[in-house]
Amino acid sequence: MLRDLTIKNYRCFEDFSVNGLAQVNLIVGNNNNGKTTFLEAIYLLTNQQTSKNIEQAFADIFQSRNEFINVIEEETVNSGIFVKKKSLSINYLTDYLFYNFDRNNQISIYSKEENPKVVNIVSNNGSFYFYLIYNKQENTDIYGEFIGIFNNKTGEVKFRPLALELDENPELSNYLESSLIKRDLPIKNDNKSQSVSLSQLVSTRQKSHEEVAKLWDQISMTLKEKRIIEALNIIHPDIERIGFTVSQGINQIRLKLKDQDQLIPLGSLGEGINKILTLAMFTVTSENGVLLIDEIETGLHYEAQIDMWRLLIQTAQELNVQIFATTHSWDCISAFQEALQDIEDKSVGKLFRLDNKYGKIRAVEYKADEISIAVRQGIEVR
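The chain above was modelled as a monomer; its predicted structure follows.
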């Protein structure tokens, strides 16, 4: 699990660090103080095992913020008859990734505590490079094994051996050498690539039927299916089964209720049931990984939020999931505090408030007992 995080020059974070991260972390703060950005940084950091993972992470981030332009390119071909061909490409607005929208600001996201997990992003000649730093080889000056070259027009990330890329592009060598954060990190020289647990991001954008169905394929006919039903029972105690159907071109999630033969469409039971289903499915499929949830309280009544937090905390402990969630809601904070009171080891959960003081964002930590005092005395922590 991540116990610390440093973010440099990523969006609103110029130089930010936080320590003492717990298994379940609730992130609060005013608008534009970096709550969503905090989740994005972790998402990039924990999805770097393959080019497919990091490419999807970039795409998810740009699309959730609507930071892209669909470009339609037309080509006219003359072969006796004029034929117009159209092709659609996506141009990601990558300048917004950099602090103050300045590509000269090198982005660094890393954790110091373990053999480091690191993402570096540097811009050069109109494109930007992202590279992973795993460990330091003996008597070498450069960390890392692979470099990812990001095409901001297509969103494609291609990995190449770092040494080969430097040999073929000598001008890049000095540029990367000057940008490496090697002096900031204590590196364990074990000559092994760092294994990084993958993460899943639940943004404020509603998940499509296809996305949810893909998760269900990992859950169906396993013990995790029971946990999903327990979650749905928070909203409707009579739900017994859940199924995904495709009938006459209509994709639908349907529920079996106690003492009823007719199957009920999920959507007919309100927004709350859909939200709790999404949270439960993403949690049980994040085993041994990280789950990131933006505005976790949306669509849920206060009493349902208490049970939701109990379920998420218990599932996180059983399946070794680290959770980071954001909220603007005092009710959500109160529900989180109440759920923590049921746990013997209350260190499993913490609240972090992101404050902007004198133009610098910092994290203020609240342990379970401090959250309890704040809730009882009505002390504002949002």
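The two ends are 25 Å apart (CA to CA).
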